[in-house]
Sequence to fold (518 residues):
Amino acid sequence: MSEAFGTRREKRIVHLPRAVIDIGSNTVRMVIYEGSPRAPRTVWNEKVAARLGRDLSETGRIPEEASDEALGALARYARILDDLGVTDIQTVATAAARDAENGPEFLAAVAALGLEPRLLTGEEEARISATGAIGAFPGARGVVADLGGGSLELVSIVDGECHQASSLPLGTLRLPALDRSDKKGFAKRVRAQLDRVGWAAAHPGPLYMVGGTWRAFAAYAMMRRDYPLSDPHGFRLDVEEADTLAQRLISADPEKLAQCPGISQMRAEYLPDAAALLRPLLKSLEPDELVFSSWGIREGLLFDRLDPVQRAKDPLIAGVSEFATMLGAAITDAALVAGWSVDLAGDGGRSDGSANTERLRLVAAQLSDALQRVEPNLRLSHAIAWALDKRWIDCTPRERAQICAALHASIGRTDYPERLLALADRDTLHEAVTWGLGFRLARKLGGGSRPALAASRLQCKKKRLVLRIDPSRAELAHYPVTRDFENLAAWLGLEAKLKIAPTDTDPEDDSEADAPGI
Fold:
């Protein structure tokens, strides 16, 4: 039996589940993560909108009914985690517990449930939220704006490090007290708070938008643009468009907003106030653009404790590797296929493949291997869902389109979805299809086995695409290999030459006979 069909066993590193309980001013949430520490995968996500901070502006206290609702949810979380055997638990509390007069009493009740709440200072909350954005966008440089229920955190980030950090009382539960019906007065009161963080206006780069209400803003923008992706993570807006959308949202009907995909009823109610906040924020900070992040304080807590080696890992490769390995597709096999088809990088060898091209070809090769391990009638829908809808970290919309086109081609489809053209140009997608056709040929050659790939070589030379198969594997030079090889050559506009010859011979040497059928 071939190694590709299971005689070889890949060693898998099992990462224990870890949980984060986030006691926020608006929601109390528990998330359980599994998988790669660098790109953790959410396996449980539950929240309750207790709105602990809803009365802070009036009474300065956590309402009794809100406290009861939150503690009921926290007792449930503690029981679930205990029953599941999850022992790696981080519990943090933010603005409501920090600012409320009865905050210490509430945290004592949380501790009585067997949890160990850590009360974050405003600066700690800001820094950890920014750390989540740093993990999501390697090399990011700009200002993180984390909008929660009780506060707005602003943090400058450069080269993977947090610098200045400030927490302002501008959370969604506090904005109504600023009275946006008085437009000039509202903007003046917001600017008075922003004047305390003059460093933010002087810091170059994008504004990284963290928090559920900002993601709802992104969902609205994506709907208005008829954007072909569903995940707001990594979505970008220029400042002018963001300001125009904010003007529209200020007077929007929350009931109608709640009908938009990706906008819950709760977020719909907060969006008009958040939009009113955004306008003076953009005017004061003058960012290059807006970048929306689904990683924030919870992911920041996980990323913050990684060692430097783990932090330095590519989150896209880590995430894809963990996902595909669960389906039996090993990254070592993907690397072999990517190396075997390296002449196809840069669209048939017409240009040098960059490091980023090789990174994308590697993850596309592993996903294409995983795609073969699902039922045939599911492969096309999975190719689209995995590439366009699944949350990958550090993967741009253009790169998602490339992965999607490559996965389509790996199952014999060169007619990729038209919506990909909103994300990448035709030349870019043509190259990605080339990768996928190469992955398909590698698989067809010998079931993707290592001996078959080691005994063959694919090369682009002048006007020819040459496939050499060592005489020890001559029987592999038959249909459907011949068909897929000819299809690949035709796609590249090259002449197909299949030779039975040692792989170290000159591709231009015609002394060896062509394989039958070519």
In short: The chain has a mean pLDDT of 92.
